Hints:
The relative contact order is 0.15. This protein has a single domain, classed as Orthogonal Bundle (Arc Repressor Mutant, subunit A). The protein is 49% helix and 8% strand. β3 (62-65) and β4 form a beta hairpin. Strands 1-2 form a two-stranded antiparallel sheet. Strands 3-4 form a two-stranded antiparallel sheet. The protein is mostly helical.
Amino acid sequence: MRITQEADYALRMVSLLAKSDAVITDDAVQNTLCAPAMAEAVKVPVGFANKILRKLSLVGMVKSQRGIAGGYYLLRDPMGVTVKEVIEVIDGPIEISKCLSENCECLNNPNKDCCRFHNIFGVLNHMLVERLDRLTIAMMVDVNLTICDLLETIK
């Protein structure tokens, strides 16, 4: 299983939005980020950034504001947005092996329950998904947390 480049960009763009400190008032949102600025920051073409932002908008993670001060902002608290969630918006369910997919028919062992590989991959996949679900965007952008701190937090 590999996290796609698109999911990587999505994580970086959501992190940018989390750091933007957007302020929602009665009539507008201050400190939004425009797609071209985010695209430049994560080194991706603007069209690709827009595609990612559309996917994030469809699930209610980000929202756009039109107008002269328009741009995107995070709709949810960064503490409540997990790395797992962002990855799955872009890539779908996290599966480290094709055999974990419901519609996969194994040629080596049709009875998945008896397959050691399937069972081990299932346990490892569960551990990975659990940890990615504990890792929030707020934690990822917190410069006071070291990598060791982050890893300890999601154990």
